[in-house]
Amino acid sequence: MTGSDPGSDPGRNRSGNVGCTLLLGGSFDPVHAGHVALGSTFMALLGASELRVIPTVPWQKSALVATPAQRADMAELAFRGQPYRVVVDRREIERGHASYTVETLRELRAELGDDAPLCFLIGADQLARLDTWRDWRALFALAHLCVAARPGFSLDGPGIPAAVAAEFAARRAPPEQLCSQPAGLTCIAAELAMDISSTRIRTALEERHGEEDAGEDGKDHRHNTGGPIPGVLPPLVLDYIEQHKLYKKYN
Ligand SMILES: Nc1ncnc2c1ncn2[C@@H]1O[C@H](COP(=O)(O)OP(=O)(O)OP(=O)(O)O)[C@@H](O)[C@H]1O
Ligand SMILES: O=C(O)c1ccc[n+]([C@@H]2O[C@H](COP(=O)([O-])O)[C@@H](O)[C@H]2O)c1
């Protein structure tokens, strides 16, 4: 586990209560500006003391491109320099098998104690699929659930399974309430509008490299030309992708 920008006392939040930890799990293949915005938005909204970023080995997604260690390294780079405490927690990629969030939350609850506020962050795409998660109803006894808007996905209406919508609505609370109790509430950041996805970034990078490779002067054009995606990838992550020759069709 590694941290960056320890900031002030990680054991306490702004109100001086027991530390309030936000959890951002993801495949991060690669991590992008939407993930950073998701973490930053809720850090500000909730007044939390720490963001714990948890790269996963997902059971619902096949064939990731970068290795687990590379995805964790990129997560560290993406959040470097944020004005709040960030810890990249590698437990899920060290488990040796695909992870269920409920398992991770049980571990964290045992480590951090019954009183520690824990808030799991997701985007609207995962809200629409929450009822496919392992033991999803058990999540609320372990953590709060915070959902951010995402272009192309709705936060309510027919896209959200009825059982999820009902559970979510019954637990809805003002954001400032979440850090004063351990688990069981939900909140929404409806204003996030980052139209970014890892899949689209991988496709854009593959296409860019394909075009560079097609030079007719016999020279190797496979280098970083500044990228077709400024603002979408944190600069240190783009550098890492180039150095490790990730997301190239011809690898
Ligand atoms: N642009 C975004 N806005 C809000 N939430 C996002 C955004 N991108 C990802 N998330 C959320 O971040 C978490 C991790 O996402 P993940 O690593 O799967 O990236 P992704 O962009 O969703 O990947 P892919 O496009 O390959 O499905 C998920 O909860 C997801 O909903
Ligand atoms: O626990 C589950 O069954 C489950 C199913 C799908 C996704 N998740 C978690 O949701 C987070 C985002 O997942 P993903 O696939 O969008 O990268 C990540 O922490 C996953 O472990 C968890």
From TrEMBL:
Belongs to the NadD family. It catalyses: nicotinate beta-D-ribonucleotide + ATP + H(+) = deamido-NAD(+) + diphosphate. This is Probable nicotinate-nucleotide adenylyltransferase. Pathway: Cofactor biosynthesis; NAD(+) biosynthesis; deamido-NAD(+) from nicotinate D-ribonucleotide: step 1/1. The keyword ATP-binding applies. Its EC number is 2.7.7.18. Keywords: ATP-binding, NAD, Nucleotide-binding, Nucleotidyltransferase, Pyridine nucleotide biosynthesis, Transferase. Residues 207-228 are annotated as: Disordered. GO terms for molecular function: ATP binding; nicotinate-nucleotide adenylyltransferase activity. GO terms for biological process: NAD+ biosynthetic process. InterPro entries: Cyt_trans-like, NadD/NMNAT, Rossmann-like_a/b/a_fold. Residues 23-203 form the Cytidyltransferase-like domain. NCBIfam families: nicotinate (nicotinamide) nucleotide adenylyltransferase. Signal peptide: none annotated. PANTHER family: NICOTINATE-NUCLEOTIDE ADENYLYLTRANSFERASE-RELATED, PHOSPHOPANTETHEINE ADENYLYLTRANSFERASE.
